[in-house]
């Protein structure tokens, strides 16, 4: 739970900062149809900006949800049993959504050309593939350990 709280706070901070200072910067002065403070990327590369904006928003909000659930559990101190297990499962999936949304926001905001976009997409696929392989191998090892611990009937 402490790691979930740490991860939730860290991702919320990163997403909040990215929202305040979006990739590509902001217009410094008004004129030519632009307003000072508006994101440059919103006008120059609208689809990429929308991908960044929505994924960054999802990342920020899912981090806040995890933080609120954890704080609520710590304040109640009565959260035991099945509800506690279910809420932990929900928080784990929310953190996964959170990190994937942060990856998409990074990919949308960190590059300019399609070639770089393909490289970033391939990197994301490689990271998620590594994660899937690691989780599958960990599950197999745990099942083998459990089968060795059980006595034969």
Automatic annotation (TrEMBL):
GO terms for cellular component: membrane
Transmembrane segments: 49-72, 116-141
Domain of life: Eukaryota
Domain PGG: 1-111
Pfam families, per the entry: PGG
Name listed for the protein in its UniProt record: PGG domain-containing protein
Signal peptide: 1-15
Keywords: Membrane, Signal, Transmembrane, Transmembrane helix
């Amino acid at each position: 739970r402490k790691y979930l709280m740490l991860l939730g706070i860290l991702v919320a901070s990163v997403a909040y900062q990215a929202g305040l200072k979006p990739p590509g910067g902001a217009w410094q002065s008004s004129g030519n149809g632009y307003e000072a403070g508006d994101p440059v990327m919103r006008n120059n590369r609208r689809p990429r900006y929308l991908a960044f904006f929505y994924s960054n928003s999802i990342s920020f909000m899912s981090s806040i949800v995890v933080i609120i659930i954890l704080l609520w559990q710590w304040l109640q101190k009565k959260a035991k049993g099945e509800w506690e297990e279910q809420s932990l499962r929900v928080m784990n999936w929310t953190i996964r959504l959170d990190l994937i949304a942060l990856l998409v926001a990074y990919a949308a905001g960190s590059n300019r050309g399609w070639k770089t976009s393909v490289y970033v997409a391939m990197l994301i696929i490689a990271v998620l593939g590594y994660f899937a392989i690691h989780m599958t191998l960990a599950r197999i090892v745990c099942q083998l350990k459990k089968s060795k611990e059980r006595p034969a009937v």
